[in-house]
Amino acid sequence: MSHFTSEDEALLQSMLRQLLQSVKEKITGAPSVECAEEILLHLEETDENFHNYEFVKYLRQYIKNTVGPVIEEETEKCTSAQNQGEISGYDTLVQHLTKKARESKEYREMMNALKNVMMVVVESLINKFEEDRMHDKEMASKAKKELQSGYYTDNCSDSDSSFNQSYAFMSQEQLQLLAERLDPSQPKEVRQEALQTLCLAPASDILSSESWPSLRKHLTISLADPDATFSEKILRFYAKSFSSSPFNMTKEVYTSLARHLELYFLSGEYSLHISAGLDVSNSDVNRLLKKVRLLNEYQKEAPSSWIRHPEKYMEEVVESTLSLLSLKHKPNHPASPDFLSPVHFLALLDIKAVWFRKWTINAAVQQCLDYFEFCKAAVNKSSKVSDFSQQHCSDMQNFSYTGPELQYIYFVHSLCLLGRLLIYKQGQNLFPVQLKNKKDSVSITDVVVLFAQLIYYSPSYPKTALVADTDNYSPESLVMEILQVFCDQTGCAAECLYTDAVIDALLHPVQSLLSGTELYINCLETTLLDVADILARIAASEDGLSVLLYGENEKDAKDIPTAAHVLVQFTKKLLHDNISLLSGSELMPVIKGAFIFVCRQMYRTCEGLQMLIPYGLHESIAEAWRKTKLLSDRVPTTVTDADATSSISQDLKTSLLWEETLLDALLNFCTTPKGLFLLHSTGAMDDCVDFMFNSLSKKIQTNEYEDFGNRIIVAQMATTPMAAVALRNSEQTFVLGFIKALLTELWALLECGKDDLRIIQPRPTPVDPIDQSCQKSFLFLVNVLTYPAVFELLSKQDIPNKPMYSFREVPTDIIDIIDRLIILNSEAKIHSLFNYEQSHIFGLRLLNVLCCELNTLLLLETQYKVSQVLLTAQEENVTETSEGPGVFIIDGLSVERNHVLVRINLIGGPQERILPLRELDKGSGLYPWPMFSSLPVPKRYVAEIPRKAEFRQDKPIGWAKICRKQFCKVMKTRPDSISGPILAELIEKFVSHLSESRTDCFFSTGSYKAVDADVKKENLSSVQQLGVEMTVRYGKYLNLLKEDAENGLCFVLMNCEEFLKQQQRTVKHYAGYDWFASSIFLIMSGDREKTLTFLQQFSRLLVSAFLWLSRLHLSVHLPVTTVEYGIHPVYFCSAHHVEMLLKAELPLVCSAFHMSGFTPSQICLQWITQCFWNYMDWSEICHYIAICIFLGPDYQIYMCISVFRHLQQDILKHTEAQDLQVFLKEEALHGFRVSDYLDYMESLEEIYRPMLLKDMRTIRAENT
């Protein structure tokens, strides 16, 4: 079918006419011929009936009949080629078929035939055009009459639809003629006819013609024509041009309209004044508003096109706008200051200045200042300011405005404009500005202070009255919107809000209430809530918090109380109901909660808490909570009267809500170590934990457990014994406790999946050792299971070891997890797991992390013999052979067990022990690490015995200052020389010297005579016995101890225990092993007498409280309350200050911890408790102990900061990988040398020592 008959031509002509009739509306609505062509080309994309048109159906069938056989033939060829591998992929096949079809002879013939027949068909249609012209003229005449009699409505921006009925495409000569006929000097009838013809032409053709400059000039002048109908037609032409032309053309229309308005406002005809008000029903005012509205509509739309056009187009629009809005009359002009400017009209139509991007600002600042002075004067006179925001701004039927109302609308417009302007840097650069009636210039700070003052001097309503108001124009609500946006923009907040002047302005009502001075404020409750809202947002950022704590210039003005002091004092007064002006207010609990939240933003940080501690805010909150709890407990449960029941129910609901607010405030003290210590002192720990787990359990059920703050609180709590007890008790209190809910979810992910999940395909086999779905649960368990928590949850608990486990039996506590996932010592346990390998690897990974904390390792090993269980499993995991011992089977479980066995049976730093990798080698050796099923550990995992340094003693060293100076010098130049006997002698003499000085002795100790009895290992607890074995094994590896060293270490530990009992309030064994005493024993090369003497003398010094943890266990030297809480000073003092310094010195590391939901205090406590054993080599451990003894206890804090600085890049990398806590607990400190960071520690000492030592000395009880 390569040719067409005459019948085909007639059929095609009919079908094409039908198609064009169907899309007539789309074509006639096009602004130009090019646009009409674009519409037809993309008709398939825009017309849902495209494939139903007969013309389209005919073409599709014709193409199919002509090219179809070619495509089928090529498809068969490609199918056979694809089977042979020559062509691959669906896309490649389609491209190949398309190319072959277009290159075929049939395709070329088809295209030529179509081209020829369509030319004939289109020519026939064009020939019929003359026949239709007379009909078109009649339609145009009819349209003209309708337009002349039509009424121009207010919707001018949408009123161009009547012009889109038909187009008369015009030549340049015709347009030039139209321009001449539109000259204002022409007769009225000529101009009207020319305008009518102009409106029928495409706007884009007119705007792009050579005649447009003349047309533009005449149209601009004609807009002021006294004939309203004529000027409105021009306005409608402008509206049509705006909606149907590109930006580079419409800016011509905009500048024309702006110029007309500018000339009109400057003319002598305009005489509207503010004082006279404005009647919008007046025809002249109505016409003017229509023109301004059209201008404003374009202003709102234009910015969306700016990015696609050169900057010069935008500049022309902006300049014409500025020229209009900043009108200046000539000196002899009769206009008065009462002049109703273009901005007033713009404000009427766009009160919140949505259009604004760049505008002159002096008038706006002046308007805000004028309104503020008006409000302030009215309030001071105790009169009521008329609140226009509640009158006409919401009255859609109003047709007239008074002078004050116009001023108010102008003020709101200016306020919104300034708020928008100050967000941007370029807008801020426009300040300061000079006003006519002010001597001093107005700065950004002056404007923001003015905003703050408007909050409490302008009319406002209680918050309850504004809830239903969706578009409130009160100054208070507008200013709040602006300030809230400022708070969210970091750069803007720093420039506009973080200044003393702004903070003082916000605190003015608070300061007045504190001092008891008279207040002139319209609505005190609303003002206080607004102030608290902004201050809380400021305190949420680091820079804002710094301004509240220390002021704009940091810590220069120490005598002047900063905002933080004012806020905490005011909050305490609120909690004690000491504000008379607020007594009896229904919003009192809300106001209290708002200011508590501001303080909470401060005491959640270490530096904020440090400043608020002297005020005892935690005690005030706890006291208010106890009173509220007492009242809610007293509410009767049975009431017969219905009204009384409703009243009591509402009171109870309010009381419970207030109680939860106070508990939440107390709970947030737990975000810092010292805050947790303060919470213990309130006695509300158990209730706070109950409240937290109730909240978090609900979040877990809805998969919303993403709050970093709550995860940090849990991690902090798990670090202390009392909090760990509370965690355990909370689990027992609730039927669905948090830990139980978490373990239930974990088990579902590991084993059986969720009951309500319909399985339609097998679950994918996990690629990672711990599947991503279980990662969060794993990290949470790592956070929670610190040694104090493990001790409280597992101490003296036996493994269930049941003979049978049901598949539906789900673990509900930690002992069940150990039983089911770690200690798999029976067939029943193995067969009870659906995913045995994946679940057991999860358990082994968890065990590996737990055993990094040596006290936890000792507990698990003594109670459950985990090492023996793993060795037995390895022994069973061998091939069976008849010729001799089998070979270990290399699989995921045996590799994991091998790693754990090496870790728990070897002590040593990064260069002293070699941990096997937990992955297979890609090379020839699948797994090059030796496996074992009995102890000792193969020598492959033990590094070479470190070579002893040659010791040479220099000239005798002086004491105290000279000694410290010489120590630092040697540490920096020859650090390896400070070890072994030299170090032992140095610290022995140094401590002996300090212990004899009354000024250096911090603790008093009684006399103690060592027990002479031959102490055996059996006299110690099982935990201590295992600790002794590990210590002696490590000491022998280091060549520091002899064969009989075990008895000597037992002697030291037993006598230390007896010695410390004399200084304890209650006799109770220390929960963990004494790693510091063991370290000193090694330093003294196993000399038990020297070790014991040193420890007795050392116990008198302040540094002993922080290096030797068992020194202050239940000690009489601590306050009774501190002993009861069981929180060690290392946690609430050293670890607390580590977190505080970390934020100042290493902000990226601090943020990384926060994002991970992990706390620096937890890992620091672990490092310090075990004296960095397994994290540093022995020489570095000695240097750590030495610098703390010689240079002071604060060096313990600097040491931890130095470690974090060393690990910074690794910390950031593992935060991104979401395994930070696992990395910090498992990995040794590779490459860290104390001597390398001594200069850095000294720089920290210069800054922080006075504060740190002062706080460290406060740990002692007053009577000791």
Summarize the structure.
The chain has 1264 residues and is mostly helical. It is built from 61 helices and two strands. The chain has a two-stranded antiparallel ribbon.
Q: Which features characterize this protein?
A:
1264 residues; mainly alpha; two-stranded antiparallel sheet; 61 helices
Q: Helix count?
A: 61
Biggest sheet features: 2 strands, antiparallel
Outline: globular
Terminal CA distance reads 113 Å
Helical residues, percent: 55-70%
Side-by-side strand order of the widest sheet = 1-2
Low-pLDDT sequence parts: 142-167, 357-363, 381-386, 390-396, 464-470, 702-706, 731-736, 948-958
The proportion of residues in beta strands is under 5%
Structural class: mainly alpha
Averaged pLDDT: 81
As a whole number of angstroms, the C-alpha radius of gyration is 42 Å
Number of E-state strands: 2
Domain BROMI C-terminal Rab TBC-like: 850-1259
Keywords: Cell projection, Cilium, Cytoplasm, Developmental protein
Main location: other
Organism: Lamprotornis superbus
Task: Give structural notes.
Residues 173-832 form the BROMI middle region domain. Its main location: other. This protein has 1264 residues and is mainly alpha-helical. Among the domains are: 6-76 and 97-127, no CATH class; 172-328; 740-757 and 767-921 and 930-936, no CATH class; 1129-1173 and 1193-1257, no CATH class. Residues 142-167, 357-363, 381-386, 390-396, 464-470, 702-706, 731-736 and 948-958 have low confidence and may be disordered. It is globular and about 130 Å long. Strands 1-2 form a two-stranded antiparallel ribbon. The N and C termini lie far apart (113 Å). The longest helix has 30 residues, at 54-83. It is 62% helix and 0% strand.
